[in-house]
Amino acid sequence: MTFGDAITNCIKSFPLHSTTIDMSQILVNVLNGMLTIQNSNKENLEISVYTSQGSIVFKDLCSKSYYSKALNWLQPGIYLIQISGAKSHQVKKVILE
Fold first, then answer.
1. Rounded to 5, what percent of the chain is helix, strand, coil?
2. What is the Cα–Cα distance from 41 to 44, expressed in whole angstroms?
3. Could you say which DSSP state residue 9 is in?
4. Of 16, 41, 51, 89, which sits 20 to 30 A from 22 (CA to CA)?
């Protein structure tokens, strides 16, 4: 199984339309290329951004109630944002133009 296959399986396991993660809300503003996470329970979260081919392009940690990161340095395309914590996991698909 390739890494891309693993990402595809992960996407099938976790709904892309969900915007909540264990009382945390993930907001992605694709108009200005900002990734914003409201982590209301202050869970330690690992944030990973993957290309649609499965290559990781960004990884960071969030332990505060609010996280914001500019993603405008990424090329236009489809990306998967994976948010993982001790009690939660979510994958969200975004399109950067």
1. 10, 50, 40
2. 9
3. H
4. 51
